[in-house]
Amino acid sequence: ETRFLGRSVTTFKIVDMPFSLQAKTYSLARRAMMKYYDEHDIARFIKRNLMKSTVLGYWQVVVGTHFGAAFTCELGRYIYFWIGNVGFLAFKIGSYNIYKY
Q: Which GO BP annotation is one of this protein's (predicted)?
């Protein structure tokens, strides 16, 4: 179960995005944790909302208590943070157009 909000401490590990997008991503994570128990559902909620709010590109979101990652992403579109014992990784990759060819 991942619904441990309450007074959970938030720790931002790596942030490479404008503050407005950082705040939006964090807000989406908090809302998702209040709405869903399953990490997959939390990640899907964040991803869908980020996709709606940004122009071009494709977001990847990972949520969990134990995970690792190696990836390439756009500059200025990467965040990794924890809310309590739950980690959040979100990053944006190239535009949709590259996948149509």
A: microtubule-based process
